[in-house]
Design a protein that fits this description.
With about 170 residues, the protein is of the alpha/beta class. Helix content is about 40%, strand content about 20%. It has a single domain (about 5-170), classed as Rossmann fold. It has seven helices and seven strands. Helix 7 links the parallel strand 6 (about 135-140) and strand 7. The longest helix has 13 residues, at about 40-50.
Length: about 170
């Protein structure tokens, strides 16, 4: 855990990451996103499910929703494609449309930590009843933790019991 996370405990309860966002994983994620290599989503979902220590502790799976702009460019949500396979193999329900991105955010990579946090504030909403649920949130790459922390905070305000993030890769 980084010093920031130690000083301020994040809203999520656990994290599982398959790999660092380095070669060859970065190229594979790029091929999934830009070339619609859905076979890679299948592989990533399968790898997450087989490495999952908390399968019996989850009630539902959510995918990080992309901005409308990004989804229209790719034609699909790569996190949802990974989450579909993960949920199927884990035997956990995938809930679509419960977690929504309600506004576009500036790209996080170029922003300082405080600006990232401001950038994501209010960007996500929960539209259904998730009270008491143990939720797995699936994403392809975590470049900064701000979007996932905001998602976990929104889910906790909606009274989920646990929020567990599952990632294909994380930037160093």
């Amino acid at each position: 855990m980084c010093s920031h996370c130690i000083a301020r405990a994040p809203s999520f309860d656990s994290t599982l990451t398959l790999a660092g966002y380095v070669t060859p994983v970065s190229g594979m994620v790029g091929a999934l996103k830009c070339s619609a290599r859905l076979d890679l989503a299948d592989m990533f979902g399968r790898l997450l499910a087989t490495r999952e220590p908390l399968l019996r502790e989850a009630d539902l799976v959510l995918a990080v929703p992309p901005s409308h702009e990004r989804e229209s460019v790719h034609g699909f949500n790569q996190s949802r494609e990974i989450a579909k396979r993960y949920a199927r193999l884990a035997g956990i329900a995938l809930w679509d449309g419960i977690l929504l991105r309600v506004r576009h955010m500036a790209p996080q990579q170029s922003l300082a930590r405080e600006a990232r946090q401001r950038n994501v504030r209010g960007a996500f909403v929960v539209t259904g009843d998730v009270r008491g649920q143990r939720v797995v949130v699936v994403d392809d790459v975590m470049t900064t933790d701000s979007p996932l922390v905001e998602i976990a905070s929104v889910l906790k305000r909606a009274r989920t019991a646990r929020v567990m993030k599952r990632l294909v890769a994380r930037t160093p």
